[in-house]
Design goal:
It is a single chain. The chain is built from 16 helices and 14 strands. The strands form four sheets. A six-stranded mixed β-sheet has the order 3-4-14-9-10-13, with helices on both faces. It has a four-stranded parallel β-sheet with strand order 7-6-5-8, sandwiched between helices. 45% of the residues lie in helices and 18% in strands. Strand 1 and strand 2 form a beta hairpin. The chain is globular. The protein binds pyridoxal-5'-phosphate.
Length: 421
């Protein structure tokens, strides 16, 4: 089940959208299929992946971590070294290049925590495209560093004031914009979900991760027991797993956000949680965290990227079939994994990726030394300092923020500086 069957992955997927969105989705599907057969498009994609994103990303042998845990050898796929700091750029660049090929000069995107918006803004800057990012007003307020970065890349951030003013409202607003401007505009959806053909497109552009891993592991003759990835919408995991899906081995392990516990509203465990249900939302059928009336339930995770009530349809199908095993890691385990790999490998995991790291820490000691497990570090943790520092060093961090505020109040010179516009 490496590809969808007419937009479906067994019973999940589909294209449940208003009539006005059918034409742009159908056009996108045709354009995508033709681009993926066009040697010059594939060459252009390869060149920009190499020179702009910085591919291929390394496969790091975590030698000390493996020794300490005393079992299987741990390898880390270093997606966090991709330009802009995470795997999201793989999809953003791919879709923006596709939009250009379709003759579209305007890009829109939705963003929650701001990571996908940031990647799309950077890709648009690189490719000379106009960029508008829809973001819930609540998220705009709490994710200022990413909002600032998007604007520095030249994107317009459009605060969404409807509904709960968070990610799902931003998606609705982006869909509305696309329905109104299909001829000029491409909608870059950020994860392996949404209506067909997005799950296939996003997986394809992220599959570069898995293809590199396959080659890197073969060069080193690794006996891979398992691949481990964190699962938000599912883009880094499905791209990483993609070349292995139709094989029997290795084990594929998806790690969801366990948050602070197993109760409703305490996690984002769409596959293993007690409120996991099949539903249709935002254009696709999949597993969601829903109440008895089919309304989306609140979710919780220390990592903004895993904090979502839905999961990509292909992940849901592969979870049901048993090809992908799902587990959860709680906030505390993710924080411990950040510390463990920072201290023992000099690698700072993003909080999302640290959920996969936590599973590796649990699994490695149960396996023989000849086996390898590969963890996808989907992003690096620099972006998380506003979350990790208040946990790791609360008093010092508070003191720092207070002194920064004072510095801003006093620094007339900052206000007076003429910035080149
Ligand atoms: C957004 C994000 C994720 C979760 O999204 P997926 O689509 O599930 O990959 C994971 N890791 C990082 C670093 C992210 O920014």
């Amino acid at each position: 089940m490496e590809h969808s069957d007419n937009g479906f992955f067994n019973q999940y997927g589909g294209k449940y959208v208003a009539e006005v969105l059918r034409r742009p989705l159908d056009e996108l599907e045709i354009a995508f299929e033709s681009a993926m057969k066009d040697e010059s498009f594939l060459q252009e994609l390869k060149t920009i992946q190499r020179d702009y994103i910085g591919r291929e990303t390394p496969l790091l042998y975590a030698e000390q971590a493996s020794k300490i845990l005393g079992g299987a050898q741990i390898y880390i796929k270093m997606e966090g070294l991709a330009n802009t700091g995470a795997h999201k750029i793989n999809n953003a660049i791919g879709q923006c290049l596709l939009a250009k090929r379709m003759g579209k000069k305007r890009i829109i995107a939705e963003t929650g925590a701001g990571q996908h918006g940031l990647a799309t803004a950077a890709a648009c800057a690189k490719l000379g495209l106009d960029c508008t990012v829809y973001m819930g007003e609540v998220d705009v307020r709490r994710q200022q560093p990413n909002v600032a970065a998007m604007e520095i890349y030249g994107a317009k951030v459009h605060p969404v004031t409807s509904g709960s003013r968070t990610l799902k409202d931003a998606v609705n607003e982006a869909m509305r914009d696309w329905a109104a401007n299909p001829d000029t505009t491409h909608y870059v959806l950020g994860s392996a979900l949404g209506p067909a053909p997005f799950p296939d497109i996003v997986r394809e552009f992220q599959s570069v991760i898995g293809k590199e891993v396959e080659k890197q592991a073969a060069e080193r003759h690794l006996d891979i027991e398992a691949l481990i990835a964190c699962v938000g919408g599912g883009s880094n995991s499905i791209g990483f797993f993609s070349p292995f899906i139709d094989k029997k081995t290795p084990r594929l392990i998806g790690v969801e956000a366990g948050g602070i516990g197993s109760g409703i509203g305490e996690n984002a465990a769409r596959m293993t949680g007690s409120a996991s249900r099949t539903g249709i939302m935002q254009g696709y059928k999949s597993r969601f965290l829903l109440d008895d009336d089919g309304q989306a339930l609140p979710t919780r995770s220390i990592s903004a990227g895993l904090d979502y009530c839905g999961i990509g349809p292909q992940l849901a199908a592969l979870g049901k079939s048993g090809r992908i095993e799902f587990t959860v890691a709680r906030d505390e385990e993710a924080l411990n994994a950040v510390k463990f790999f920072a201290k023992n490998e000099g690698v700072l995991f993003a909080l999302e990726s640290a959920h996969a790291g936590a599973e590796a820490i649990r699994l490695a000691p149960t396996l023989p030394k000849e086996k390898a497990i590969i963890v996808n570090m989907s992003g690096r943790g620099d972006k998380d300092i506003f979350i990790t520092c208040p946990v790791f060093r609360p008093a010092e961090w508070k003191q720092f923020l207070l002194s920064e505020l004072k510095r801003l109040d006093n620094a007339q010179d900052i206000h007076d500086t003429e910035v080149m516009k």
